[in-house]
Amino acid sequence: MPKWYKETGKNSDVVISSRIRLARNLKEYPFSSKITKEQALELVERLKGATPVLEVKEEKKYFSCNVDILSDAEKTAMVERHIISPLLLAREQSTGLILSEDERISIMLNEEDHIRIQSITGGMNIMGAFTEANAADDIASELFEYAYHEKYGYLTSCPTNVGTGLRASYMMFLPALNVTGKITKLAEELSQYGIVLRGTYGEASKSVGNLYQISNQKTLGSTEREIIESLNRIVEQVMKQERRYREYILTHSYDEFEDKVHRSYGVLKYAKQLSSADAMTLLSQVKLGFDLELLNLKEDCNVHELMMEIQPGNLQCILDKNMGSGQRDRFRAEYIREKLPDMV
């Protein structure tokens, strides 16, 4: 079944994906910061029991597992594909995952909260993601009693999630804003509207390949629809800025930029070794070249899909082989040469 990151949707030149995350806790257990080892193990096993119910009611295949017993490569690959968070990996207690076959719905168990329901769609389709996450939440609420307060809403480990427990976010491709030095100013402007700009893998992470997350910062005092509509208005403005600066670059530095795009393509097509950092930088240049129609290839190419696949964990899972960094760099270069279409 095609994964979410193979999709290209609305405004996919700038908006890579849309994500909704719902934070929930069970009434009868202490929050994750206070839960005991035995309670955590019991909690995860109970929550995993929702898997067959999700399958029947949503008519799609789901898998469940204990994350803490997976291999390092498998866990790293899941972080790279945004299935689980780095925080889940850091948990010393029992943790779990319920995952749909297309990886659009992932439910983290015993992360910062007992349940983190996440839905991801390709392109700008936040309402589609919300509909899917909300459906999974409705099913879970029938099976488990949530910690809920009439005045404050859903109770969560972090005060900023109290209320709806909803975090709406977009993964955005912002190379022009980055190269023109506007990213820092953008982050400052967004914070004034209760919107936060983070790196590729969320809080405390850096941007990789000019990919940034933009999401709401608070959930208390607003409805789900108000949060989503507010974020959409901001993202529309960010898209306009990014596209305006892309046009500025083309107008003022066309020859230089065209040369950089083709050089990046040439290195990707013929290099014998590529680190993940170098590959992401070069693929970012090539994606921008595609979006601005500066590259003409014999076949369509989903550059973001390739960006996901060449990350260290995913590359090892695809090849079913544990490798050191040097060996990965050679296989990464070979993989990109095979996947990247020839120019016309």
Automatic annotation (TrEMBL):
Keywords, sorted A to Z: ATP-binding, Kinase, Nucleotide-binding, Transferase
GO terms for biological process, alphabetical: phosphocreatine biosynthetic process
Domain of life: Bacteria
Transmembrane segments annotated in the record for this chain: none
Pfam families xref list: ATP-gua_Ptrans
PANTHER family reported for this sequence: ARGININE KINASE 1-RELATED (PTHR11547:SF38), ARGININE OR CREATINE KINASE (PTHR11547)
Family: Belongs to the ATP:guanido phosphotransferase family.
Name this protein carries in UniProt: Protein arginine kinase
Annotated organism of origin: Anaerocolumna xylanovorans DSM 12503
